Amino acid sequence: MNISLPIFAVIVGFAIALFTKAGKASIQLLLSFSGAFLLSITVFEFLPEVYADYSKMTGLLIMTGILLQVFLEFLSKGAEHGHLHHDKNKTTFPYVLFISLCIHALIEGYPIHTNHHLLYGVVVHKIPVAVIISSFLLSSNLSKPKILSFLLLFALMTPLGSLLHQHFEFLASIEHYVHALVIGIFLHVSTTILFESSKNHQFSFSKTVSIILGILIAYFL
Questions:
Q1: pLDDT per residue over 203-216, tens digit each?
Q2: Where does 63-137 show beta strands of DSSP type E?
Q3: In angstroms, rounded to a whole number, what is the distance separating the alpha carbons of residues 13 and 196?
Q4: pLDDT tens-digit map of 49-60
């Protein structure tokens, strides 16, 4: 399985931010699709797999994953679901944002080498996030080497999480528990995208279509 796809997703997101004029509405539609797709893959495949050997600890770790993501989003200001605001006066490297996003990316990479549908879900989710992060960084006063270093390290975190799982026996021995933690993270990120991407919580036909499309594609994979 090609675990380098998340790196490609970040490159695509950076290219979209650099060479196109994708508007906020377009990014929100892409986010809605990615949130629905990731949520559907989690519910259709990942969640039943983890609950096959159910214990109360499984549920506890899923809730812990949700709380962990809440904490990470407090640090990243919600970059995982599109809540980054451009700051043209920004000149210092955003270390807190970087660390938060890297922790998220590292953990989400843990299960992807055993589930290629989940890998696709992560990749689809990563593209709009990379667009948002790239746009934020490109609009700041950070130097191009700093921006590229940020994006390169961020891109490498997800494959690194997968490699750690494959090559460290200790991590493999607690796979079930880490998977439950990842489910909590995915549930929080994907549902937050779906519930917050509507302006003033108004009905949007295009957003609804993108969500339904994400669900259907995930179902028929």
A1: 588 889 999 999 99
A2: none
A3: 21
A4: 888 877 889 999
